[in-house]
Amino acid sequence: MRAIPFKQVDVFTRVPFRGNPVAVVLEGIEFSTEDMQRIAAWTNLSETTFVLPPSSAAADYRLRIFTPRAELPFAGHPTIGSAHAVLEAGIVIPKAGKLRQECGVGILELAVDGDLLWLGAPAATDTRIEDADIAWMEKSLGARSIGTPCIVNVGPGWLIADLGSADIVAALNPDMQNIAELSNKFSIGGVTVYGASGDGQSAIHVRSFAPAHGIAEDPVCGSGNISVAAYLMKTGQAERVGERYTARQGMQLGRDGRVSIRIEGGKIFLGGSAVTCIEGSLR
Q1: Which residues form the catalytic set?
Q2: How far, in Å, are 60, 95, 222, 225, 272 from residue 109 at the CA level?
Q3: Which residue from 7, 11, 65, 43 is spatially nearest to 255, judged by alpha carbons?
Q4: For 101-150, what is each residue's pLDDT tens digit?
Q5: CA angle, 248 then 251 then 256, to 5°
Q6: Of 43, 155, 242, 274, which has the fewest CB atoms closer than 10 Å, so is most exposed?
Q7: Cα–Cα nearest to 28, from 98, 89, 77
């Protein structure tokens, strides 16, 4: 096999090794689906992506996204990290400051704003769960939720819960087996929780647990943060938190991801910086 260009990009940070890494294979056309899944299991990152020629003339490139165990139709941090990689590699040149990515949920538009990339998120749906399942989630987390948790689906689905404060979020030590079983029951990515921040730097702190996908805790989760924003809108909290806010995530894993959220006209935009940490090739 010829050498295939590869980058590892840290997302939701301007400082290397402080965000969430994604492996980006820049010429994915060389690989079968089975190869892609095998490579994603080998990198052992929360996601690995493969850049492909678009199947639609409306898109600049196509992206396939894999966790160590399964393919995803969409994920936030791989989308932003892969956009950074294709721009840096010169594969795509923005048109009027924008690029269009084709993935499992359709064609998504990204805007380049200095060192920030903004993603127009897919539309979210929400599903209530039974009180017994909420109790199961709370027992698994070791914490009570505020309000009514629900599943929010933006491609991957997340069970979203407000735990009230960042201190409670930080202190969690979840039962990962229970979280995995709960996730499998509802065919979702996992559980994402948040709490109000008092750090003067962010509005909320977030944690995302996805053991069913081989990811005990996602360092900084784009789709989880989009799902939190959708939950804030659904529960009438968006005005209190702010229609433009920053979320922090990853501190319990030695990271310090900063996720920008913008809500405009009922649509959610996810923003983040990215930095390449590794460049090389697969052979």
Answers
A1: 47
A2: 10, 11, 15, 18, 14
A3: 11
A4: 999 999 999 999 999 999 999 999 999 999 999 999 999 999 999 999 99
A5: 55
A6: 242
A7: 89
Sheet strands (E) in 187-265: 190-196, 204-210, 215-218, 244-249, 257-264
Residue with tokens 């080998």: 42
Is 1 a residue whose pLDDT tops 80?
Answer: no
pLDDT-derived band of residue 40, with 50, 70 and 90 as boundaries? very high
Amino acid code (one letter) for 41: A
Q: At what angle do helices 176-186 and 131-141 cross, to 10 degrees?
A: 150
Write the CA distances from 139 to 52, 171, 174, 218, integer angstroms. 43, 14, 9, 20
Instruction: Give the integer Cα–Cα distance in Å for 123 and 86.
Output: 25
